[in-house]
Structure to design on (212 residues):
């Protein structure tokens, strides 16, 4: 990690495209289903990254690996040998906003800045990771864990829609968290609610405080 950019900066697009190619992914045809066992925190990050690279055929597994197991579906410890694919990235720059962009958008009334972290971290009462506690001035708090129930399943679409009721008419919704990972769960929630105006601040809080 450099001085700026946050704890989890976006990967080099060409490096990620090469990895996807070696995994057997062909763009734009291969359907990718991302899953985890962390209430979609990492699955949503992959879902968003693929969309950022221009790959639309990507979904997340509702309920994650735990839900799959509880439903009695088969699991294995065998690692497949993928055939080489061909992934060509088509970067969607409009999906991201950097620190300068966030700073310039703090005042306009039609832009909403959303902090995805737990409420006590948003309020600055607890900060277990970063050196400075608090939140970006003007941000409102929509904790990422509220997108799913305790069992890891997504809340129904009407609940996702209701969740964003107060900000859904904004011209732009900028989402951040601590380092750009769990913010993607809120971006998935916006997608489910049919709200197309969500953007990611990839560096998030860990990048923002590097300029203070």
């Amino acid at each position: 990690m450099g001085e700026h950019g946050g704890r989890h900066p976006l990967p080099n697009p060409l490096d990620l495209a090469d990895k996807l190619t070696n995994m057997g992914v062909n763009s734009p045809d291969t359907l990718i289903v991302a899953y985890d066992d962390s209430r979609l925190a990492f699955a949503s990050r992959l879902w968003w990254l693929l969309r950022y690279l221009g790959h639309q055929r990507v979904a997340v597994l509702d309920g994650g690996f735990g839900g799959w197991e509880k439903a009695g579906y088969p699991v294995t410890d065998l690692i497949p040998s993928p055939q080489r694919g061909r992934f060509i990235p088509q970067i969607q720059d409009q999906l991201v906003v950097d620190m300068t962009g966030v700073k310039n958008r703090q005042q306009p009334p039609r832009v909403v800045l959303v902090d995805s972290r737990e409420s006590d971290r948003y309020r600055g009462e607890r900060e277990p990771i970063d050196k400075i506690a608090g939140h970006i001035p003007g941000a409102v708090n929509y904790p990422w864990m509220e997108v799913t129930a305790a069992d890891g399943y997504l809340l129904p679409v009407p609940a996702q829609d209701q969740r964003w009721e107060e900000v859904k008419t904004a011209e732009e919704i900028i989402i951040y968290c601590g380092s750009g990972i769990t913010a993607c769960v809120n971006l998935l929630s916006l997608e489910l609610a049919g709200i197309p105006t969500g953007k990611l601040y990839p560096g998030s809080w860990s990048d923002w405080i590097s300029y203070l």
